[in-house]
Amino acid sequence: MSQEQAQLDRIRVVLVQPSHPGNVGAAARAMKTMGLSHLVLVAPEGAPHRAPEAVARASGAGDVLAAARVTATLEEALAGVSLAAGASARRRTIPWPTLTAREAGPRLAAHAAGGGEAAVVFGRETSGLTNAELERCHLLLAIPANPEYSSLNLAAAVQVVAYELRLAVLAGEGGLPPAEATDQPPATAEELEGLYAHLERALVALDFLDPDNPRQLMRRLRRLFNRAHPDRMEVNILRGILGAAEAAARRGRGNS
Length: 256
Hints:
Number of helices: 11
Structural class: alpha/beta
CATH superfamily of the largest domain: SPOUT methyltransferase, trefoil knot domain
Strand order of the largest sheet: 3-2-1-6-4-7-5
Radius of gyration: 20 Å
C-alpha cells in the first residue's frame, strides 16, 4: 500500500441520518473515485446502502457500500477520531473555526499523515447537522457555493470534499505542521467528550455554571478546546485539575 493510500485510509466519511439510497450510492462512488473507502452511516432511515438504487448509483463502488459501518450515534461513528470536520453551510450564533473545503483538505491530510484518524461529517439531506452535532467537530468545513443558489446535493458535496482531500494527499501535504507537533497522540473524540462532561460537572460543583441557565458557556468552552486541539496528556492533566477542584469544593462544603 502506498503512503498516499495509507493516509486516505485514515480518513472516514460520516453521513448523519441519510435517507435517500441514491445519495448514499452516489456518495460511495464519489469516495471510491478519490481513493476513500471508509463510509459510516449514523442512524440511517432503513438500510439505504443496501437498496438496489444505492447499488446502481454506486456504479462499481459496491465494495464501499458493502463495507459501510452503521452506528446508532455520531459519538460511535467518531470513535478513535482525533480531528473531525463538520460540513455545514449554516451560519452560527457563535463564530466557529471554519475552513473552505480547499483549506480543510491539507489539515485533514496532514493529520492522517501523522497517524491520526480523521473524519468529515455530512448532515441530513434536508436539514444538515444540528448545533450539538457540529460541536462534536473540531472545525467547520464550508463549500463556497454561489450565494444566490447554494443548495448542494449530498453526494455532490462528498465529491467536492473527497477531491480536495485527494489533491492534498497527492501534493504531499502530509506531516504534522509545527503548530501541531506533539510528543503525545491527539485526544480522540471520546476523550474530548469525557473532558467536556467532566468540565461541566466541575463548573456546576464550583457554582460557576447554573445548570438551569447555562446560556452558551459550554458551547464557548468547546470552541476554545477544539481550537486548541489538545493531546491526550493535556486532556489528562486538565481532568486531574478538575478532579482536584471538585474535591476542594466538597471539602469547602463540609467545613461550612
